[in-house]
Amino acid sequence: MPRTRDHLPWTDPQLRRDPYPFYAHAQTHAPVSRDEDGTVVLTKYADLMHYGRLPSVLIAPEWDKAGAWSVLSDMALGHDEPDHTRLKRLTSNWFTPKRVRQWVAITASVTDEILDRIGADGLIDGSSLAVEATHRTICRVLQVTEDGFDDVRHYMRMAMPVLSAAAGPEDFEACEQAHVYLQGRVRELLEHARENPGDGLIHELVETEQRGEITAAETLATALFFYTVGHMDASYLISSGLQLFAEQPAVFDAFRTNPDVRQNIVSELVRYDAPEPVVTRATSEDLDIGGFEVPAGSTLRLMLGAANRDPDVYDDPQKFDYTRPPAQSRSLTFSLGSHSCQGRLLAEAEIKTVWERIALRYSQIKVASAPEMMLTDASRHFITQPLRFT
Ligand code: HEM
């Protein structure tokens, strides 16, 4: 089997900045490859859809390797069937289309509040706007205090690099430290909810636990996931879109003036710039993948970002083209199979809503100076994003 490091050098700053030329190369020369630790890396859309959905391909064993994130083995995302469905049902009612309409009314009002603070120079940090609008929305869903977005953002940046294929001891250490804060914070929020009944998602989790239907560990993991991750990828895509609108003003004009194309622009950006371009799985039986033997107990890295630009699926895949036919605008950014993202509707609606509120007041977005970013092969974050709205 080809060696991953010859095609996907995970720590190369160029790959971290723009992995897509590397993915394209790997799809042609090494669609399936083996990393130094034995992990098998898959890049083709059809392979992800096939192997990623086999009942013998599991998620649970992978969380044991994720440092302090292994706490999530107690929520839906950390379980295989039957517990996965049991835990996923706990929160599914909170993200129905009707509820999402209610939640994005919050996103709109928080965004307006932030835009009201912009001075006459039109300067704004787009990434702070995106984080504040999405974090405060998920806080209202949970019904917890909304003031912690700067801390959550800071600690999430420390906690995420551990998911990289090239994570080192310093990443595991930083993740541990971040979780002292993040888990401590969520324990406080849960304690407060136990003593002060309410009708948020956190109260429902606490009540379900009090009825003995879920464990304290399941309550903590589920609340932690929504509190910490609920803003992260949606805010990345909000910022990524603002950057695109600055670089391609015609796309912002189309978004502003034609409501019919807004969802297409959101979907195309979701395909084009996956915030977490990879998910991992473990095999529980011997498999033949692309003619290579993969023994039971192997880790698979399913490269969602690569699949999203597979030329066997998408015409002119490297082009941002919001006029693609609907079949071509579907992507794997929200994962595949039973673990596909429960927050997809909310995330897409938040992205559209923040851009709409901006478009109501401004007709041009300019880059004031280059954004600062924190990029690994597994997650993408804006640190600062100086923009000027006019
Ligand atoms: C653009 C924004 C988002 C992206 C790109 C995204 C992406 C993902 C991905 C890739 C997974 C699956 C991971 C895997 O298969 O191993 C996932 C799972 C999940 N996401 Fe999201 N997510 C986003 C926003 C959200 C939001 C806003 C929420 C909640 C409000 C959310 C809730 C969930 C949940 C609960 C799961 C676990 C589903 C399961 O295991 O069955 N996500 N998401």
From TrEMBL:
InterPro entries: Cyt_P450, Cyt_P450_B, Cyt_P450_sf
Keyword Oxidoreductase annotated: yes
Keyword terms, alphabetized: Heme, Iron, Metal-binding, Monooxygenase, Oxidoreductase
Pfam families named in the record: p450 (PF00067)
Recorded coiled-coil stretches: none
Top-rank taxon: Bacteria
GO molecular function, one term: monooxygenase activity
Gene3D superfamilies: Cytochrome P450
Family as reported in the entry's similarity comment: Belongs to the cytochrome P450 family.
Descriptive protein name: Cytochrome P450
Protein source organism: Gordonia aquimaris
